[in-house]
Design a protein that fits this description.
By secondary structure, this protein is mainly β. Helices cover 14% and strands 35% of the residues. Among the domains are: 6-41 and 461-721, Alpha/Beta hydrolase fold, catalytic domain (Rossmann fold, 3-Layer(aba) Sandwich); 44-137, no CATH class; 371-458. The strands form eleven sheets. Strands 1-39-40-42-41-43-44-45-46 form a nine-stranded mixed β-sheet, sandwiched between helices. Strands 14, 15, 16, 21 and 22 form a five-stranded antiparallel β-sheet that branches.
């Protein structure tokens, strides 16, 4: 038998329960397990925390009914404005009242904030009670709204065209494309890979507007069908599959003062990716990461904002697997020709200090853990604050680094997850912390000396609930050396002399992590519900998942699912070693990449799992989109062996477990063709498979219908594992 090392970490939920107390406590219902985690059972916390400019104070929205202020210096909380007062001000100017205080408000100064999208308002707090005014009114049919930092300019889209509105002036159309295959200003460019979450870029002083112009006229129309009408209606989307013709994207710049439009001369080939779009603080240049379609060669280029001309390439990054730029440049305010670049070039996402000529001034961080977020700097820009993954990906901690000498120190040393907001002056951090044992602790940390003041410590929201216990485990990966993080939730009223059925919940793909030292261990409340109903619930983050560095992730290249399932089987070995696990009643469940992993496990290791549920599964990577698919698999022409190895319709002959496939008929991420092709192959091979469709849902089943989804999955496992 193959030897292995299993390290059980200390991670029990210690809630002070005794075995006999379970009978007196309530159980969660299925609907509560779906909707309650972020509602009735949400730990007390501060929501929508923002730094107030020119101060060391923070604002937050309490219960959607009031805007309040926390003093960084002493932690005192004061009310800024109640919802009823805001609605009174809105009524005074004939505006529509709001059902909740605007949580997406933006502070413009220490005494004023703005909010709204259809109508944009400013609230000035200098006068007692506040004064409200309407800045501009783009209207209800707008999307992708972006507002300049001074609140004087708004850019937005309507029906794929870009519009501009300036305070006190009429709407100005910037583009007038009539072909629906031309999309201006949308954030859905390159299918939102490469960290893209916006398609409009207003310059720092508001004098120019840059935007993505996506030409997808050459991309194949993919048919989706809306069956809600008596005669079903075709609603095709543009869906570029791996190896096929891709969209072509350019960057335009419009200058309101001159009325002129130009496009950056980003060159050929036309199907390259434009990433990390950044204005320099003086508005002279636009920086763009030019990534080749093969995604293994990046050039950070500088372009003239006045002419669109290419100026120079600051640096290049290459890798034989992939390069994945995910962040724009972070410019220092006091030295506008200096910026911070994030890169995995040394194996972990680290920070590099450059000037705008392309000279590397310093590698700021040399972490063996990926940097996760830049939080900001102090007013004098002596120190930078950032968070990193730590403890083999289980924790998130906040660090401070000296921008002159590179010396750093940790401000939140405790194991667990710290989320933080830095005050505008940089003297205080507002942190919210949780761990497996801790629902939430909100604190203020003085950045100079690390002194911490606890503001609120949440009670356990499940104190009246008989919640099952969870613990962390560490399992050695199939490579024989890499530690993997796992989580096991034992059934309610656990009896070690009994045999229990097991459900393995899996994702396993890049950009995701399921196990963390955070409240509930990163699990969904449904996992605890299933443990309450008598299941052992198990999850393992295999190699290929997030927050462990590039080497940990890139083992998946050109062979998706292969190394990952080997690691998952190490988890299965661990489960089978436990005397209370019934190895004849094991199930597996996952969605999207997890659906792919579920089906791969069932067809690669027949007989191990008695039943599985695959939601929105990728079944054949040649049907998946270009940007994600080609990064990890290259094209089908470049990697025919890899595509053949991972094509699940060719492996359904191995299926000897019960399998439920669930798919949204409107899925525009993993199109339903994946499931249909697999089912068709099962028919040809004489294999039975169960299938359920959500006609109105896309890639995920959300809202109240999610209760129906979880009931469907629960019933399936109850039928086949109990």
């Amino acid at each position: 038998m193959m030897s292995r090392k299993i390290y059980i970490l200390v991670g029990f939920i210690t809630l002070g329960w005794f075995h006999s107390a379970y009978a007196q406590q309530k159980k969660i219902t299925l609907s509560e397990s779906v909707l309650g985690q972020y509602r009735q059972f949400k730990p007390e916390s501060f929501d929508f925390v923002k730094a107030i400019p020119e101060t060391d104070d923070f604002s937050f929205v309490e219960n959607f009914t009031a805007l309040k202020r926390i003093s960084g210096a002493d932690g005192k909380i004061q009310e800024i404005m109640e919802l009823k007062k805001l609605n009174f001000l809105l009524e005074e100017i004939g505006a529509k009242k709001r059902n909740s205080f605007p949580y997406d408000l933006v502070w413009e100064t220490s005494y004023s904030f703005r909010f709204g999208s259809e109508n944009i308002y400013r609230v000035d707090l200098r006068k007692e009670g506040g004064v409200i005014s309407e800045i501009m009114a783009p209207g209800s049919q707008t999307a992708n709204l972006h507002i300049s930092s001074d609140g004087k300019t708004a850019a937005y889209t309507r029906e794929n065209n870009l519009f501009l509105m300036m305070a006190g002036k009429k709407e100005l159309p910037i583009t007038s494309d009539k072909n629906t295959g031309i999309v201006n200003g949308s954030d859905y460019v390159h299918r939102q890979e490469f960290g893209i979450h916006e398609g409009i870029f207003i310059s720092p002083k508001g004098n120019h507007v840059a935007w993505y112009r996506k030409d997808e006229t050459m991309v194949t129309d993919y048919p989706l069908v809306n069956s809600a009408q008596r005669i079903a209606e075709a609603t095709p989307i543009k869906y570029p599959m791996a190896g096929m013709t891709s969209e072509q994207v350019t960057l335009g710049i419009y200058t309101p003062a001159t009325g002129k439009t130009l496009f950056l001369k980003t060159g050929e080939p036309a199907d390259q990716y434009l990433t990390a779009v950044s204005w320099d603080p003086l508005e002279k240049y636009v920086f763009v990461g030019i990534l080749n379609r093969g995604q293994n060669h990046l050039k950070l280029n500088r372009y003239s904002a006045e002419t669109g001309d290419f100026i120079n390439t600051l640096f290049e990054e290459k890798h034989d697997k992939w390069v994945e730029p995910e962040n724009p440049l972070y410019f220092l305010k006091n030295t506008p020709d200096v910026f911070i670049w994030q890169s995995e070039r040394d194996g972990y996402n680290n920070l590099y200090l450059y000037n705008t000529s392309g000279k590397l001034l310093m590698q700021l961080t040399r972490e063996k853990n990926p940097v996760l977020n830049i939080l900001g700097t102090d007013a004098k820009e002596q120190f930078l604050y950032y968070s990193t993954s730590d403890d083999f990906g289980m924790s998130e901690k906040v660090f401070r680094i000296n921008l002159k000498n590179g010396k750093s120190n940790v401000l939140t040393p405790e194991k667990g997850k710290h989320s933080a907001v830095l005050s505008a002056n940089g003297n205080y951090l507002f942190t919210q912390y949780s761990s497996l044992n801790t629902p939430n602790i909100s604190s203020l940390i003085q950045t100079k000396n690390g002194t911490k003041r606890i503001i609120k410590e949440s009670e356990n929201p499940y104190k009246d609930i008989a919640l099952p216990k969870a613990e962390f485990v560490t399992i050695t990966a199939a490579d024989g050396k890499t530690p993997l993080n796992g989580r096991i939730i034992k059934p309610l009223n656990f009896d070690p002399s009994k045999k229990y059925p097991v459900i393995v919940y899996v994702y396993g793909g890049p950009h995701a992590q399921l196990v963390s030292d955070s409240w509930l261990g990163g699990a969904s409340l449904w996992d605890y519900y299933m443990a309450q109903e008598g299941y052992v619930m198990f999850t393992l983050d295999n190699r290929g998942s997030a927050n462990r560095g590039f080497e940990f992730e890139n083992v998946i290249h050109r062979r998706l699912g292969q190394e990952e399932i080997k690691d998952q089987m190490k988890g299965v070995e661990y489960l089978k070693s436990l005397p209370f696990v019934d190895a004849d009643r094991m199930g597996v469940y996952g969605w999207s990449f997890g659906g792919f992993m579920t089906t791969t496990l069932l067809t690669s290791y027949p007989g191990v799992f008695k039943a599985g549920v695959a939601g929105g599964p990728v079944m054949d990577w040649k049907f998946y989109e270009i940007m994600y698919g080609e990064r990890y698999m290259d094209t089908p022409e470049e990697n025919p062996e890899g595509y053949a190895l991972t094509a699940l319709p060719d492996k359904c002959k191995n299926l000897n477990s019960r399998l439920l496939i669930i798919h949204g008929a409107q899925d525009n991420v993993v199109v339903m063709q994946h499931s249909l092709e697999f089912i068709n192959a099962c028919i040809k091979d004489g294999k039975q498979v169960d299938f359920f469709v959500y006609p109105d849902h896309e890639h995920n089943v959300r809202g109240k219908d999610r209760i129906h989804l979880k009931e469907k999955i629960t019933d399936y496992f109850n039928l086949h594992l109990k």
